[in-house]
Batch of 2 targets.
Target 1
Amino acid sequence: MKKSTFKTSLFILMLLFSGAQLNAQNSIRLGNSEIEKVRIYQNGAFISRTVKANLNPGLNEVVFDGLSPYINPNSITVKGMGDATIIGVNFQQNYLKDQKKSPEITKLETERDSFNIKLRYIQNKIAATNEGIAVLQANKSIGGNNNGVIANDLIAIVDYYVKKINTLKDDLIDLGLKEQKTQEQINKINLQLNVLNNKQNQPEGNIVVTVDAKIKSAVTFDFSYLINSNVSWTPIYDVRVKNINNPIEFILKAKVYQSTGEDWTNANLTLNTGNPTDGAQKPILYPWYLNFQIYNYNGKTNKRMEAAPSMMAKDDKILFNGNEAGETMKWENTQLMENQLSNEYIIQSKYTLKSGNLETQIEINRTNANAYYEYACAPKLNTDAFLMGHIPNWENLNLLDAQGTVYFDGAYVGVCSIQNTTVNDTLDISLGKDERIAVKRTKVNEVTGSSLLGSNKEKKCLYDITVKNTKKEAVTVIVEEQLPISQDKDITVNALELSGGQLNATTGLVTWKISLQPGESVTKKFNFSVKYPKDKIVNGL
């Protein structure tokens, strides 16, 4: 009986040992996956990769490593070709993998060691020079206290002392500058190493795929996943105008930032204005109930039927197929749906985006927009005349909400804001001020007095607005002023003289459109009165 038990135990141990060997054989780590495509959203990115693997018969645990630790597990999709079936897919963060120094870190550390050695040599020379100066200063006494010194000897000794001290102190200045520059180089390398080491010390993401293979075979896996954080892109524009006889050029660029923990090498990029975390389904309006408050005996209220019930989430699904050679095997538990209202830009050139704290600018496209140009000014606030570019039918340009950097005739002008949500038919862009358009607002007179009836007081404000064109070509200038608007029936505002200006009675805005030939000057009258009870004070006047 004992002999039989021993044989059974030995058989079980052999099975366990062979099973351990099988598991060791069928555990495959793949860190060489290639990026097929990166779709970058304004917050997030969808990554598509491919990798080849050799499967053994039976269960295989295939680990795609070297990935971002910020992967959304619910977004992972894995597909493959071969005589095998995917049993399941999991995502995990790996804190235990040995962190190998990147070639960039190794190179920087070597450079830093070289600079540190150079710094020590410089510091040794500084110390030796200071000792030399100390020796000279300690031996200033010539000939002792009781012995005289021949004049010629004294002159030679003093001359030697002065020259030597000057030489040593000049050496100290040169050495000090070299020490400072060397230390600055070391500091810069340390800052860059801090950035790279922070990235190096992150955990890595692992996608673990369990596959059941009938025979030993080579399989190509295509897998994709969504990263919700640490990656984004922001649109910006360069707005360039050569002169007022040329269209406005919009150069759309993307400022791309990614610190996902994985490098995207030679990748096909697509930039999308959507947000992958937004719900793709239309929200459902449930009944909205109203009822009276019900008071408890303790004076507190119960609130009933205040909110509609929340919508239940659908169960995740796992799809299995690929039982025959050549068929596709697929696992997915989500479907990424693109917002049809978003813009998507396919970048023609391939880019390499390394994980880090740096932004990369990528040019997307260039668009020319026909425009007409006018100068505009509001001399009540600022006597400068600003060149304005007006773009009709701007909706066809498909511009994005973004900040723009404006250049006129190759020179930087300033920053503008482009908003595609404006309801105006014309898009207005300020192209900077032109000092060759001179504007002056002069107060001619201000009269305040009482009427004969004695109940009201009338204040008259009289202004001259002069615009002069000192340019060599004709220009059009829009001048804006404003009449005050009464908010009380006892306050009356009257326009006395506007010199042909157009008045908007609702806003009080007065506008003149003035055409000026080279060297021409025009003056417009802007006169108005305000009548109000003499025993009251008007705010804002």
Target 2
Amino acid sequence: MKKILLIGIIIGLSGCAALAQNIGEEYRRQFEAYRQQQQQAFDAYRQQQQEAFRAYEESIRKQWEEFTVQAKVNMRLRPEPRQQPVRPEVVNTENRLMPVSEVMGSVSSLNRKAGGNLDDDIPEDFFDDLANFLEDDSEPAPEPEPAPKTLMAEAGNPAAFQFAYLGSTCRVRMGKDFAFTLNGVDENCCADAWKLLSQADIKALSDDCRALKKAMRLGDWGYLGLLDAIGKAYYGNSDKSVLFSFMMLVYDGYQVKICRMDKHLALMVGVEETVYGYSYVTIDGLKHYILNTDEASECYVVNLPQSGGTRLFSSALSSVPALAYEGAPSREIKVQDKDGRKLSAKVKPNRNLMLYYDALPRTNQWNYYVNTSLSREAKYALYPILRREIDGKSEVEAVNFLLHFIQKGFEYQTDGEQFGYERPLFGDETFFYPYTDCEDRAILLSILSADLLGLEAVLVEYDDHLSTAIRFNEEAAGSYFQLDDGKYYCCDPTYIGAGVGESMPDYAEKSAKIIRL
């Protein structure tokens, strides 16, 4: 009996081994088929890429078209008051419907939640963990974990080239195949260089660059800066760097062109919104803003094939970029309430973030500045202190406190005095530059009221002033705007001493443009 059982076991094991071998062979056949399929797909993609690049090469080799360059236009300098206006002791506080000329945008889809709109950089229980801190003003708020200073597109990448971008050391797959010769900037020289560069492994580099863009939460303009940093690190500050950026942006499907100006190459980008501070050329009804160059009266532009990219650039940001933290000088905001109690908050901005914001083009799309919100560094330093002050207050009382905080905590100066030109500030920049004007304060109040109270705000624009109006979930009084979704009460963070529902007398009869956020 035992012999029979042993023989059965041996036969069974032999069968299992044979089965395992068959399964292994089948797996290898499937894997090989999959590998061949992937290789064929890659080869087809590579062939398609080469054909598209050959079409570009032919276009580059043809005579470039001459265009007249339109001189750059700066933002209109808003005629704001030289001195910050102060509310008189006696004011009319009766309910008053304010006139509206137009409403821009639709009801917000940001789904702000009451009690704080915290992004992924701050845990949801952040304020609960600070109970002890809130009882003692002497302790500094805990600092957030800094963004990594060394970034790779993906863990384990055979990263061959290293470069620096706004405090971070980045690595991408960019080998010797990206080296090329550019003997001049005429049509044939550029076409020859394009042909050489198109042989490089652009897909791997593009994958790495787009992964870095996502990891660092860069907008389109930040992506331009990233490619510019790579190009200058690899080729130096030269026309080769411009041609490299052009090819990468073409590969990524952007609406981009290249032109020759004063014997040098320059990038031209199609942008969704109107931006200021760049000269431009209008092609097929679209303004193409010129980068990497000084002023010139004319330029010569490549007539690209119809298969060119259609993705327009935008200066908008969906969130604050995640950049390596390098502390700038601390900014202390001091205010005193009606009872003489003093409040102090210190914010230490991220210098790399300030450099990023400073490189963005100027635009009067005010919602861009609000929707970007504040950085985690600013939130960690500021929000616990503000939350302590507004906890237990009604919505109107809490907004009155935020109004007082901004009205008295930030020194006022017009952009003309501080910069010599119109320069709206992102939320974090109000803690970096010494002065703020009306639009900077309106932007900051809109951010704070949404993040800390979950309240819906709109911006109120006049020819010479920008303010805020807020919709409350409780009774309020004073001047208001009637919109489709309810009453929005005037909240002016520039008008010293003014509370909810109070606006400057000069604007009582003026029609305002309402900008939804």
